[in-house]
Write a structure and sequence with these properties.
The protein is mainly alpha-helical. It is built from 17 helices and 7 strands. It is about 55% helix and about 5% strand. Strand 5 and strand 6 (about 410-415) form a beta hairpin.
């Protein structure tokens, strides 16, 4: 009897303790932060229990200014002042440390270059990434990119003239993203797992196993004498570092897996989001779609895109930059961009980014700024040019009347209700 009373009391204590922690996280702490920031003159959309201020934040982004926003119960200080952005990103005095990934984000992205705070590990990761994404490496990747786009376009062949859900056809969805902001009772999550958590762990293991298999495949070819090295691409550089005799350069299998997860998933999501919005804008601005198509046909004709030709696509570069300026909106200050700040006008980049920003680099930072700028930015833009060129060579396209414009930010900025587009073969 005493054991039953003890266990009942313990269970009741755990429930009360968990509820108290939950209340602290979802109510008391957000209101405390909100009051504290207001005393310093920082305001923003008010915190709403559980839901945060996601919808209001989208409006605030369009208006500009520094403000406090909420992603669920997580406070975020959003800054748009150029000089303050520069101070944070350069971080000369190490005042703004990088925080690592947690929970589902860590399972999704691993502990790779993006989340590593700094120090020797980060320097080693950055050096490998810089080597993997320099010009010559990108040139070697071009045939693989063309093949990948070919595979996608073959799937589109049977849907010509019909609506194609571009977002789904460009993007791989993971259970991790769907559950990144789920609220769980603190402490009780150790006692049982939800169906989604079990599925997420299976996916995590599947991703790891796939990466290990790719490593073994390259190692096997080297050992059999079929190739001289592990390859010049990013995976090849990582496998080489895995076998490096120099301990200062050597990485572990876990490091390798995390880097692959980071660059594949972060790169995949970033690239697909950019392609989605670029197709959206060209679908509603047919005059720019035609100008882009004429440029591609003048450079490549009906031949496959190649590395040297991609560098000649000036108008495509302008379209990419304008897309990245609008989605997501980094700076909507009319004093910088003019009264047409919210309009799609690629010509504003006709003389380059420096001219468009009046030499104020931090007002346009789609790939970050300073020492932590995205190492894969050349890869993403290179990939986008290949994909868009091959689409323009084959199709004209228009936005479906069923499209509902509702951008939402979840890991990347994307259309909440998808992007249905009709593709018509060129005559």
């Amino acid at each position: 009897m005493q054991l039953v009373i003890f266990l009942s009391s313990l269970f009741l204590f755990l429930v009360i303790w968990s509820l108290a922690k939950l209340l602290h996280k979802l109510w008391w702490n957000p209101l405390r932060i909100q009051r504290m920031m207001a005393q310093q003159g920082i305001t923003g959309p008010p915190y709403r229990f559980l839901h945060g201020s996601t919808k209001e934040t989208i409006k605030m982004k369009m208006e500009g200014g520094n403000y406090l926003s909420w992603l669920g119960p997580q406070a975020q200080l959003v800054i748009t002042e150029p000089e303050l952005i520069k101070e944070v990103l350069l971080n000369r005095y190490k005042t703004y440390p990088k925080t690592g990934n947690k929970d589902f984000a860590k399972k999704l992205l691993g502990d790779g270059l993006v989340s590593t705070p700094g120090g020797k590990k980060w320097a080693k990761q950055r050096k490998l990434a810089n080597h993997a994404f320099h010009g010559e490496s990108l040139k070697n990747m071009a045939p693989a990119m063309v093949d990948s786009v070919h595979t996608m376009l073959v799937k589109w062949k049977n849907q010509e003239g019909k609506e194609i859900e571009v977002l789904k056809n460009l993007r791989i969805e993971f259970v991790y993203i769907q559950n990144a902001f789920n609220i769980r009772l603190p402490g009780l999550s150790k006692l049982w797992k939800t169906v989604d958590e079990v599925e997420a762990e299976k996916l995590e293991k599947g991703i790891r196993d796939s990466i290990i298999q790719m490593i073994k495949k390259r190692e096997k070819k080297v050992m059999a004498g079929e190739v001289d090295g592990f390859g010049d691409d990013f995976l090849g550089q990582l496998v080489k570092a895995l076998h490096d005799a120099d301990k200062s350069k050597k990485i572990t299998v876990d490091n390798l897996v995390d880097e692959c997860k980071t660059f594949y998933i972060a790169g995949q999501e970033t690239g697909n989001a950019m392609m989605t919005w670029m197709l959206f804008l060209l679908a509603i601005y047919p005059e720019w779609q035609e100008e882009a198509r004429m440029e591609v046909l003048n450079v490549f004709g009906n031949k496959e895109p190649d590395f040297d030709g991609l560098g000649k696509l000036k108008k495509i570069s302008m379209i990419i930059n304008e897309t990245l300026r609008l989605y997501p909106p980094f700076s909507c200050d009319p004093e910088i961009w003019g009264d047409d700040v919210h309009q799609f006008k690629p010509e504003r980049f006709s003389e380059g980014v420096a001219k468009a920003t009046n030499n104020n680099a931090v007002v346009f930072i789609p790939f970050g700024f300073g020492p932590r700028s995205c190492a894969g930015m050349s890869f993403v833009t290179f990939e986008a040019k290949v994909a868009l060129s091959m689409i323009l060579q084959r199709y004209t396209f228009e936005l479906s009347p069923a499209y509902i414009h509702c951008p939402v930010h979840l890991f990347t900025n994307r259309p909440q209700h998808g992007l249905p587009i009709r593709f018509h073969p060129l005559q």
